[in-house]
Amino acid sequence: FFNKEKLKEKLQEALKTLGVLEG
């Protein structure tokens, strides 16, 4: 079970990482 705040945090981290990879 994931806490929504943690999930949102992970999602934003993933999006930021994708942004970096996309350059």
Report what the structure shows:
The chain is mainly alpha-helical and 23 residues long. The chain has one helix spanning 4-22. The radius of gyration is 10 Å and the shape is rod-shaped. The relative contact order is 0.15.
Gist of the model:
The protein is mainly alpha-helical and 23 residues long. The protein has one helix at 4-22. The chain is rod-shaped, with a radius of gyration of 10 Å.
Keywords, separated by commas or semicolons:
single chain; 23 residues; mainly alpha; 0% strand; rod-shaped
Summing up helix and strand content along with how strands pair, one would put the structural category as mainly alpha
Tell me about the biggest sheet? none
How much strand?
under 5%
What's the β-strand tally?
Answer: 0
Low-confidence sequence ranges:
none
Give the mean pLDDT: 91
End-to-end Cα distance: 33 Å
How do the helices and strands follow one another from N- to C-terminus?
Answer: H
Kindly state the percentage of residues in helix: over 70%
Number of separate helices: 1
- As a whole number of angstroms, the C-alpha radius of gyration is 10 Å
Name the shape in a single word: rod-shaped
